[in-house]
Amino acid sequence: MRTLTGTELEAAPAGLMTPATSPVGLDNSSAQRGSIDDSSAQRGAIDAQLERMEPIGLDELNVQARLMTRVDRKYFVPRQLFIQLLQATEDDFQVLEIAGKHRFEYRTVYFDTADFRFFRDHVQGRRQRFKVRTRTYVDTGSSHLEVKSKGYRGQTVKQRIVHPLDRPFELTGSGQNFVASILDSEAGLSVQPQVAANDLAPVLETVYDRITLTHDEQRLTCDLDITTRNGVRSHEGPADVLVETKSPGGVSIWDSLLQNAGIREHKVSKYCVGAALLNPELAANPWNRTIRRYFR
Predict the structure, then answer these.
(1) What count of other Cβ atoms lies within 10 Å of the Cβ of residue 86?
(2) pLDDT at res. 33
(3) How far apart are CA 63 and CA 250, in angstroms?
(4) Phi and psi dihedrals of 210, rounded to 5?
(5) What tens digit of pLDDT does each residue of 213-251 get?
(6) Torsion sign, CA atoms 83, 105, 273, 154
(7) C-beta separation of 68 from 159 below 8 A
(8) pLDDT digits (tens, 9 = 90+) for 92-109
């Protein structure tokens, strides 16, 4: 891991410096976080730092750290701190590069029942719960249907199949069969009424840019400029980078650095926060504080 020097030390968070050089930590107050408009001016600095990192191709990334079963941790990271952490770990982490690009547009459509059963399972903190979504990778022209399951041991399991690129807002016949096979296989583990695949419909879409970093079996996804919409309402934000660490054991290099910098983990779901923002009638107690701090 590279040691920060010179002017970087003046702005670096306490966790990245020795006690002798760091009498105070970085101020992560709302005044320092900035707005959507002024944070966009830092995109160039982020892109410049990514150019300094060793690239990795998609095939190699999938072989090295596919991580379909993993422990996830999520953090809201001010963009200036995000740049500093990129600098501090540039010798350890590789960045996904495709056709010379490091940031890629994602479009994700989430499916739920008419009464938002999957959302309500999250609100109630059920140990076993699901997300069903189509994800379109705009820059590579591909799409997948995914089912994410949260298991009883806290691990996330993601299963997916190829999905028609031009049908992100619907579950095709094969898609319904795929979703049904997973929901049916888990039915005996839950006392709740089973959800049928044909009960699901699109309820919201998120659009954002994603940066992917990797080191050994550790993977980071870093989402910027998130827009959530449902055809009636839309919402932009947060200004921060939503960083998700993914590792088999649940503790990565970035987890340690972020915690040392005073950034705490958040139990946040882009789907659940988005659904709450666009549907004010939904109870969202687990995320109300997060919404007020990062999304308002």
Answers:
(1) 21
(2) 46
(3) 19
(4) -125, 135
(5) 999 888 999 999 999 999 999 999 999 999 999 887 767
(6) negative
(7) yes
(8) 999 999 999 999 999 999
